[in-house]
Fold each of these.
Amino acid sequence: MTSRATPPAVVHEYPLPVDTSRVCDLPMHERPRELAERVGMENVSDQVLIALILRSGIHGRSVLRIAQDLILHYGSLPALSLASVDELAQFKGLGQVRAQVLKAALEIGTRIRDEENAPKKRMTAPADVAEAIRPLLRGREGETFWLLILDAKNGLKQRPREITRGILDASLVHPREVFREAIRTSASSVIVAHNHPSGDPAPSREDLRITRNLIECGKIIDIKLLDHIILGCDPERDSYSFVSLREDGLVTF
């Protein structure tokens, strides 16, 4: 019986990605910054985004090559985001400082994702608003004015947004500042809130005047102001009280 020779194993060879030792050797329109500016940050590759964060390469290794090697090594941005600073620091071309910068950028992305995917708190009663603001009252020695941006189901679209600090008057609480973010985020409605450091949440004449002004401006741009909550905080007792201008019928909404 004639034995057959075992055919040699087929070796698949994949060329390494072409590296440019210096980004400045690339055509102008292919450099990370120019590319992002030309096509938009949302349209560039993961490699380019990482290169923009790292900013520069090392001798004999361009920033694009370092970024590409990171993607190839970890496989994806989610996997890369799980790497520790110490682990990243060992990667050729990074080091401790650049590893911290990269990790910080990835952590920002993770927090944005988690916040967007978190169930939205619904503001269905004045107490819901007061509870959302309560953690922000600690350490406040002066008055602070917040904006709560809501969706069509009265869900809180983002964390309460601080508009201004200081004794409230019409010059500080301008409708333009209040509604700018609401317009940008396509808010269905908004609620405003502020604190009285004295501990007494009773509204002043200026509080009522500001509220009426915001209501009228909201009607013009079709973003309804649902309520104005005033909170009084007693830091010694770690307690607070609040007044709803809508619920108490102090202003016609």
Note: The radius of gyration is 28 Å.
Amino acid sequence: MKAEIKRTASRFRHTIGKYRVQRGKQCKSCAGCVVTCPHGVHFKAGTRMGTPRDYLCVGPEVCRSKNCFCVEKCPNSALNVVINPQIKALGDFRWTADLLMSTWYQAETGRLPDVDMEYRTGNSGGGFDKLRFRFPEKPPQVIPAEDIDTSIELNKRGDKSHRITIGIPLYQGGMSFGSVSDSTMVSRARAAMLWDTFGCTGEGGYPEFLYPFDRQMITQVATGLFGVKEETIQRVRIVEFKYAQGAKPGLGGHLLGDKVTERVAKMREAVQGSALFSPFPFHSVYSVEDHKKHVDWIKAINPKVLVSVKVSTPADVDMVAIGSYYAGAHIVHLDGSYGGTGAAPDIAKKNIAMPIEYAIPKVHRFLVEEGVRDKVTLIASGGIRTAHDVLKAIALGADGVVEGTAGMVALECTRCSSCESGRGCPRGIATTDPELAEFITVDWGAQRVYNLYASWRSQIVGVLQQLGMRSIRELVGRTDCLRHLDYN
């Protein structure tokens, strides 16, 4: 399948946009607005005007600057453009209405929206939202976009036979069987394959419909060992130990009973309808030596596999990271407290783990001081929403990131927080209900995620050009390229 950006419109008849275009009774269906608007908002439906495609409207300011404002061009004064009142109920401080809508647009088109939306940051008042890049007045050198390298190495330990390079500095976080629909899992896996990066099974087993993506799939071994089998470990090139999750450290995984269907129970070797809890921690691991036995166990089953260790961000996360390196891990995956999971209680998300923007430089500096930073791949997750978040995490010291919620938003998640119980997501994303799951087709979903990554890569290349860097690897640990709004 040849990968390319293709416009992939919303599944829903009424897509939410920043503006609402109102057409009054004065309209004579002259179609002058169709000719005037270059964005496709207006169209004829037979002899009458169709309902405006509001979500394509870029707003009065942009249209006036281009002399194509339909309201002022209408000969019958039948049109009006106002801010969509729906957006007042959309989003939250981290995922604002602008951030949701701009992500939907990028997933549809593969590029940034023309409308005046904030697509880089949210409004949380902290974290990545307080960081900005320091751009030189003039780039040190002019670098063509095609010469920019966005690839990263996932194995730095020196074993050349186990090298894995991914084309973009991100791979996908675990979405386990039972937490999201089959079509969601396959859509994400196909997009990962098209971008030469990785998807992840999450905990809960390795369903057969993911077998075609073996070379681009990470399988996860979590504390509950649900669905873990030696034959599936042998299928993949990367295995991830999930010791903790940043959104709920100290609590372990949790799948409510309503989502444990017959299929899910069979895969997880559990009882249908019973809530499934993963313990915290692995009850066989209480030291680095125990941890090394885990890593050795995986390497004995699959000698060519890379081992990733996913941990949350306690105060001593730097010691955890160095311990994982000496235990034989190739990737240390830091999962911060902003990570999205529908089942995580707010008291855990907001009060336990260290914010990822503190954990990354802490671990990066410690690994540098220990002389092993060039021998371990440092990956960050927990609140990566935009291309600029990706770049900020790397500038703080990560090699790359893991994306989770953003891919769900590309599939038109509205952040309604209905993921974890009952029938699950009413939009068919995080659900085990077969009727709801039919809302997403794999072709549509894969293209939407692919388009989002295309837009992100384009933005990453643009920032690197402004900084005069030829490779994303040059940005690692360059905190001098960042500034904090509260201090400078």
Note: Residues 5 and 451 are 6 Å apart (CA to CA).
